[in-house]
Every structure is written in structure tokens, then in C-alpha cells.
């Protein structure tokens, strides 16, 4: 039962950074999921997969798992890389790709 502590990345469907500032504690699965033969649902007998705890800082999450004696792994938060671009760059003479229309 290893806990994973991470800060979630921005989803592709978001333009803002909502829900990405808090740290999340999830448990890694102990057993594989199985397909229920009658209805085809995916299920698991591992109840720890349903637990998700949120913390304001990484230190709070680490203090929680240490206090409860839970083995853990911290994943480094990946920062978003923003490329600067301007609309005028579409009309430059030294464009990398040629203008097509």
C-alpha cells in the first residue's frame, strides 16, 4: 500500500489552472482491475483506490503519511512551459513554414 503524492497537471480541456494548486494523495493499486462477465463493468476489490486526499502543500501531505506510517512516493510537480507568440509572427518574411494561402 504505497501512497503517491503529486500535484495534478492542467487537463487538455481547461484553459485555466483550476484544481492544479492542491497536492493529492492517492494509493497505488495493490491488485489488477477485473471485468465483470455479465455486464462488462470494470471493478476491483481494492478499496484504497477510492481514497483521494487533498492538501494545500506538499509538506502537509508528507507529514500526514509519516504520522500514519504509510510508505509514500512524492512526484515532482511539472511546471507549464509557455511559449510567447504574437499574431504578427504569422506574417514574417523569415517564417519557418511557407505561407500556404
In short:
This protein has 101 residues and is of the alpha+beta class. The protein has 1 helix and 6 strands; from the N terminus they run βββββαβ.
Q: What would CATH call the architecture of the domain at 3-35 and 43-78? A: 2-Layer Sandwich
CATH homologous superfamily annotation of the domain at 3-35 and 43-78 = atu1810 like domain
The CATH class of the domain at 3-35 and 43-78 is: Alpha Beta
**Average pLDDT level:** 86
By helix and strand content, what is the structural category?
alpha+beta
- SSE order: EEEEEHE
User: Termini distance?
Assistant: 58 Å
Give the neighbour order of strands across the main sheet. 5-2-1-6
Biggest sheet: strands, sense, closure? Answer: 4 strands, mixed
Stretches where pLDDT is under 50 for at least 5 consecutive residues are none
Secondary structure: helix percent: 10-25%
Proportion of beta-strand residues: 15-25%
What integer value in Å does the Rg equal?
22 Å
Count the E strands.
Answer: 6
What is the CATH topology of the domain at 3-35 and 43-78? Double Stranded RNA Binding Domain
By DSSP (H or I, 4+ residues per run), the number of helices equals: 1
Instruction: Please state the overall shape, judged from the principal axes of the Cα atoms.
Output: flat
Regarding quaternary structure, what we see is: single chain
Main location: membrane
InterPro entries: NADH_UbQ_FeS_4_mit-like (IPR006885), NDUFS4-like_sf (IPR038532)
Keywords: Electron transport, Membrane, Respiratory chain, Transit peptide, Transport
Subcellular location: Membrane
Amino acid at each position: 500500500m504505497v501512497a503517491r503524492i503529486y500535484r495534478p497537471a492542467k487537463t487538455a480541456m481547461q484553459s485555466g489552472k483550476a484544481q492544479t494548486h492542491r497536492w493529492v494523495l492517492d494509493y497505488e493499486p495493490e491488485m489488477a482491475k477485473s471485468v465483470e462477465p455479465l455486464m462488462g463493468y470494470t471493478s476491483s476489490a481494492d478499496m484504497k483506490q477510492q481514497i483521494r486526499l487533498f492538501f494545500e502543500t506538499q509538506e502537509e501531505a508528507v507529514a500526514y503519511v509519516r504520522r500514519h506510517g504509510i510508505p509514500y512516493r512524492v512526484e515532482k510537480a511539472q511546471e507549464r512551459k509557455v511559449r510567447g507568440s504574437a499574431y504578427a509572427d504569422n506574417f514574417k518574411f523569415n517564417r519557418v513554414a511557407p505561407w500556404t494561402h
